[in-house]
Amino acid sequence: MVPFLARPGGASVIELCRQFDIDHDVLMQDLATLQMCGVPDYSPADLMDYCVVGDRAQVTMADYFARPLNLTRQEALSLFVAGSALIRSGIFREEGPLRSALDKIELLLSDESKEELEEVIKRIEVEMRAYEGTMRGIIDEGLERGMNLDLEYWSFSRDEVTRREVEPMSLICSQGFWYLLAWCHQSNDFRLFRLDRIGSVELTDHPVARRVRASFDVPHVVGEYKPGKKAHQVKLRFPGKQGRRLVEEWPAAQVTDLEDGTVLVELRTRNLAWLATYLLRFGDNVHVEGPQELVKMVEKKARDLLKAYS
User: Fold this and answer.
1) Which pLDDT tens digits describe the chain residue by residue (310 residues)?
2) What pTM does this model have?
3) Where exactly are the structural domains of the chain?
């Protein structure tokens, strides 16, 4: 509706009601809602407004909607493939808003294009269901029967593989990854285990202790790490804005733009092994200012990597 109202002169109330199959009262409610919509930082200057003069309505403060937003062919096809794969994988309902939106895109596709996309969607579906084999079946059985699981798990933060017995509680999907929420006997605390980091899983004959979950706070972004008091204080310097990539993946990091054009990134972590491996991807675009232990780790990993390639 907004592109219609953002045009010079707006649109007539009668035209809007007919175009969107709504009555006058619903239209007024929708227009009132617009006053709470806008773009970041959502200050008054970024929110939309509207006015009704005579029989015409017009939206102001919405230049970014001055014309209907159009998709390129590539964007439309990408959305169609990704959305269809999500529905077939059970993440979204078959009959829902996403399916309705995809149906509109499908009307524009030729029969030949539909056949080609169908083959692509099938391949994506297989990848998205990669965790639904034997391993996922064992985890589901543990959840249903209330039995402990024995995991072989690779810890990203410590860069090591361990075995541990856990009490499964639920499965969580976040940012394209599945996580097992469980009470870990080794850590004596609640933990989130990413399924693609589980090497193997076995069902034990030990029933879960039915621990109370109320004390466990699932992060808004699953996998978000909150360092403790014993964490190392790390300082990294990047030329230009290279460091912002790390900040996006590490919510607890802080970034400071320095006068010489470099970017200083500060973060805290309990274990430096994962960070040393991660920093290799930046090559010579990162300078580790501290701690010295991390400097030595990065140098060693780089030497080992070069040695392996030589």
Assistant:
1) 887 787 778 889 998 898 888 999 998 888 888 877 776 666 666 678 888 888 898 887 766 665 556 777 888 888 888 888 888 777 677 888 888 888 988 888 888 788 888 887 777 654 444 455 678 788 888 888 889 999 999 876 566 788 999 999 887 766 667 788 888 888 888 888 888 888 889 999 999 886 544 445 555 444 445 555 667 888 888 886 666 656 655 555 677 878 887 888 887 777 777 778 878 878 888 889 888 898 998 899 888 888 888 7
2) 0.41
3) 2-65, 73-128, 134-207, 232-309
Which strands, in side-by-side order, build the sheet including 189-194? 189-194, 177-184, 160-174, 147-155, 198-207
Helix (H, G, I), strand (E, B) or coil at 178: strand
CATH fold of the domain at 232-309: Alpha-Beta Plaits (3.30.70)
The CATH number corresponding to 134-207 among 2.30.29, 2.60.120, 3.30.1050, 2.30.30 equals 2.30.30
**Residues of the chain by 3-state class (helix, strand, coil), percent to 5:** 40, 25, 30
- The phi, psi pair for 134, rounded to 5°, reads -60, -45
Enumerate helices (H) and strands (E) in the chain, giving the number of each.
10, 12
